[in-house]
Specification:
The chain is mostly helical and 556 residues long. Among the domains are: 148 residues, no CATH class; 205 residues, no CATH class. Strand 9 and strand 10 form a beta hairpin. Helix 10 runs antiparallel to helix 11, helix 12 runs antiparallel to helix 24 and helix 19 packs antiparallel against helix 20.
């Protein structure tokens, strides 16, 4: 009997686990990355360092979305002078809270000989404990000495030990070593002439992928012990982290990035046309989708493709008003299942999608179709020419073209418009039963809405059938794999990683398109930590022969 591909892959994976054979094709890796912490990563890190009651108040400069992800844009982000001033303000506020009377007994490991003067021993104990956590790697002796010196100098100047401690701590929170995730490298003993990520960078890359925050104490200890350089030790840590409730935090961060939820910050709806779409709806719409995702993909370990067909979700009181459904607990979240004949099926029918990809006062089949193509299928739609006339599409009161389908059909008569609209409109028009706020309707301007469409030769009618089309499209899963790997390494897959990406996609399919299994495959792979050879000095850990250049625009 000829063994199945599933059987062969399982055997290869088992052999790899026990060091009996290769588990994956070779990969070139990519260049070392230097990524600015996202606002959420910053907040999560501060919470892990000092507790969630420490307030982080201030303005964070936005990141530019690159190749579909903010996390890739973070590798090209600088810190401007005005942004640094904000970081300085935030750092000082955080440091002041850490040493105030409400927190110092817990967060400062010692009491000074006198609260009105310097105490080098106590300052050293504080920075020796917190320094490796802030920098995500061991603290060098000269750095520790400098922190103690600065802190004691400030304490003597203002006659306040805790003010001096806060001064030194704020300085740490403003350094590039904290604000940026830098890939430090070291010589690879198994491949002479090549370099690899050092254990501390491996720990950070792993933790920010799975938990969207700094490494915890156990992961830091594993790095210290060299465990992350062994296949078995790495897998032990990955399994521990995948079993943690914190995995949901990491998965939420990835999908919030992929779905473009940062644009909710500037989303506006006409309050006269959509009076029910208030700020609470905006917040709850995002939360509904993220809860739907984590429940299906993490709690139930379900098939990723089912996100486009599931009728299971959660709902809040504010969302119930817009969805026009009763909510048993108006002041909280409750499980909810849309009926089999309900037009809502899958996350592309939830408010977070149909309302986000609409105009302030009307729906948009084009924006929605473009979003499906680009977000879920990774198919870039060209920008429209600068001289396109949109007046016909925007004229919702035109007596000759009462529905969006009629207006778009007339608009596509222009040759410069037909090509792009052909790949966007059929999917977007299937969502026209939802207005610009995501509320269900059957007519537009008293004219019945036609929600039929055709994509790649497949005809469908309505949102449920559209969801099935997306569910079954091979590009849906390959797009997810590319997005997740790009998110994990902070760059698009490199040319030398083609075989690895094919292997990753095959593994995703063999494991039933389950996100935890895909994360495991990435996190335990050699490719995830591979560094491509590059001319010139490579980034190395501070204090070694080569050091990472400071991120552009950063100040120390």
């Amino acid at each position: 009997m000829v063994p199945s591909f599933r059987h062969c892959l399982a055997v290869v994976a088992a052999l790899a686990l026990f060091g009996c054979g290769p588990s994956e094709p070779g990969s070139s890796g990519g260049p070392p990355q230097v990524r600015r912490l996202t606002e959420e990563q910053y907040r999560n890190t501060i919470a892990d360092l000092f507790g969630r009651d420490i307030k982080v108040a201030g303005h964070f400069d936005p990141l530019n979305r690159t190749d579909g992800l903010l996390e890739i844009g973070a590798a090209r982000a600088a810190i401007t002078s005005s942004a640094f001033e904000q970081y300085d303000l935030i750092a000082r506020q955080i440091a002041a809270q850490v040493v105030d009377e409400d927190h110092r007994d817990v967060l400062v490991p010692c009491s000074p000989a006198s609260p009105t003067g310097a105490d080098a021993a106590c300052a050293r104990a504080f920075f020796a404990r917190i320094g490796p956590q802030i920098y995500r790697r061991p603290l060098e002796a000269k750095t520790l000495d400098r922190l103690v010196e600065v802190s004691c100098g400030a304490a003597s100047s203002v006659h306040d030990f805790y003010a001096g401690l806060a001064f030194g701590l704020a300085g740490m929170l403003e350094t590039p070593e904290f604000l940026f995730l830098a890939d430090y490298t070291e010589p690879d003993p198994d491949h002479p002439g090549q370099r690899r990520l050092d254990v501390w960078s491996r720990a950070s890359r792993l933790s920010f992928l799975l938990w969207n925050s700094m490494p915890d104490a156990a992961l830091m200890q594993a790095a210290q012990d060299g465990e992350l350089n062994s296949r078995r030790g790495l897998r032990r840590q990955v399994e521990r982290m995948l079993d943690s409730p914190r995995l949901a935090q990491g998965v939420r961060a990835f999908f919030a990035d992929m779905l473009g939820f940062d644009t909710f910050d500037t989303l506006a709806k006409d309050p006269i046309i959509y009076p029910a779409f208030v700020q609470q709806v905006t917040d709850d719409a995002q939360e509904q989708t993220l809860r739907t995702i984590t429940e299906l993909l993490i709690a139930k370990k379900g098939d990723y493709r089912d996100l486009f067909t599931t009728r299971e979700t959660v709902i809040s009181g504010s969302l119930g008003l817009v969805y026009d459904v009763p909510v048993a607990k108006p002041d909280g979240w409750v499980p909810y299942s849309f009926a089999v004949d309900d037009p809502r099926a899958g996350i592309i029918t939830q408010l977070s999608f149909v309302a986000l990809h609409s105009h302030p006062g009307r729906s948009s089949a084009t924006l929605r179709g473009k979003a499906v193509r680009e977000i879920f299928l990774c198919q870039k739609v060209p920008d429209p020419p600068g001289n396109v006339n949109f007046s016909l599409v925007q004229d919702t009161k035109n007596p000759n073209y009462k529905t969006a389908r009629q207006r778009l059909t007339a608009h596509r008569s222009a040759p410069t418009c037909a090509g792009c609209h052909k790949i966007m409109d059929p999917m977007g028009l299937a969502l026209e039963n939802f207005d610009g706020a995501g509320q269900y309707r059957t007519t537009e301007n008293d004219t019945p809405i036609d929600a039929s469409g055709e994509v790649d030769g497949i005809k469908f009618t309505g949102t449920a059938e559209l969801g099935k089309v997306v569910h079954d499209n091979p590009a849906t899963t390959s797009c997810l794999v590319n997005r997740l790997y790009g998110y994990a390494v902070g760059r698009p897959p490199a040319a030398g990683e083609k075989d690895w990406m094919k292997y990753l996609q095959a593994g995703f399919a063999e494991n039933g398109y389950r996100i935890p299994d895909l994360l495991r495959l990435i996190a335990t792979s050699d490719a995830f930590y591979a560094i491509a050879p590059a001319p010139g000095p490579a980034p190395a850990a501070p204090g070694r022969s080569a050091s990472a250049p400071p991120p552009t625009g950063a100040r120390s």
